[in-house]
Amino acid sequence: MSGPAQQAAALWGLNPAQVTLVARRENEVWRAEGPGGPYALRLHRPGYRTQAELQSELDWMAMLAAGGLTVPRPTPSRSGRLVEVIGDTAVDLLTWMPGRMVGAQGALDGIADREGHMRRLGALLARLHDLSDAWTPPEGFTRPRWDRPGLLGQAPLWGPFWENPDLTQTQRETLLRVQATADRDLAAREAGLDYGLIHADAITENVMVDGDRLVLIDFDDGGWGFRDFDLATVLMRQLSAPDYPALRAALLEGYASRRPVDPQALDLLLLCRALTYLGWIIPRRGEPGGEERSRRAVATAMPLAETYLEEKHG
Question: How far is CA 175 from CA 128, 148, 170, 306, in A?
């Protein structure tokens, strides 16, 4: 039986019988065997990204790969396009990246030198930001914006986090106060914050270890944003780790090859990062494991929100 993945493989001249599903998260990812080695065939969630956004993501990734970062490299189809469309599904093909995933839900599986890992990841993100700053995107380049309206506006990029159905009424009221206060706080700081292209999803599932190298995958949520937001995304999954202070210090030390980080601004963006997941899960709550993920998002965000308000208002 021929499905979209098999149809897509043929557009790249790959054997439709040699594709295997390896992940079904935001997108479906299939491993496709080819004469040049394995590839990652991505079938994108319909409606999540426009074709222009996908083309922009691939142009950006190609630049990063050419600049020496170990990231997937897009591969043109037989017709020369980086993005093909089958029905309502956009498809692209990336080089298959070596190594193993660091871990699930923040776990640093098999990482003996946890601080060393964070130091290397900080340096990798700094290099990504450096390359992005030195690049002039092509005409028509468009990616999501993790700016102040995208994080704390009335229509946040990942949805109205205060409407998560697993929140109590008291928690909703708390988050609405947090939204207004944090928006003013970020407005006062944003002129001095480093802003540009960011990965925006460097969680442990999207970082791979290949010997002594780190590999960054899944640029699906990458776009324009505060650089410290990339660091906040890494740190949010480590908040409950007993060595969190040391991991945080190591990440910032690795990143400091680019510029120092303002700890207060980082804490604010860490709160913003936690809030985004409350909105992200709302349309996905009915998917397998969605309710559990939603409750976990609430359990992560609310202590940060409450602590933030206490520090601001006493």
Answer: 33, 16, 9, 9
Question: Are 286 and 206 found together in one domain?
Answer: yes
- Could you report the per-residue pLDDT of 201-245, keeping only the tens digit for each? 999 999 999 998 999 999 999 999 999 999 999 999 999 999 999
> Exposed (0-12), middle (13-18) or buried (19+): which is 198, by Cβ within 10 Å?
buried
Q: How far is CA 174 from CA 141, 171, 180, 294, in A?
A: 37, 5, 10, 17
Closest to 89 measured CA to CA, from 40, 146, 133, 47: 47
Check whether residue 164 and residue 291 sit in a common domain: yes
**Assigned token pair, 233:** 């995304």
pTM, rounded to two decimals:
0.95
Q: Is 198 in the same domain as 265?
A: yes
Q: Write down the pLDDT at residue 314.
A: 60
- The distance in angstroms from the start CA to the end CA of the chain is 63
* Domain count along the chain: 2
- 9 vs 239: CA distance, rounded Å: 41
Q: How far is CA 242 from CA 43, 302, 304, in A?
A: 38, 20, 17
Q: Is 178 a member of any domain?
A: yes
Separation of alpha carbons 284 and 307, rounded Å = 28
User: Are 297 and 224 in a shared domain?
Assistant: yes
247-251: Cβ within 8 A, 24+ apart: 247/114, 247/115, 247/118, 248/118, 249/115, 250/114, 250/115, 250/116, 250/117, 250/118, 250/119, 250/122, 251/118, 251/119, 251/121, 251/122
Q: For residue 40, give every residue at least 6 positions away whose Cβ sits within 8 Å of its Cβ, in sequence order, or none.
A: 29, 30, 31, 32, 72, 93, 94, 95, 96, 97
DSSP 3-state of 99: coil
User: 159: domain CATH number?
Assistant: 3.90.1200.10
The answer to whether residue 101 sits within a structural domain is no
Domain that holds residue 227: 106-313
Total Cβ atoms within 10 A of residue 10: 14
The one-letter amino acid code at 117 reads: H
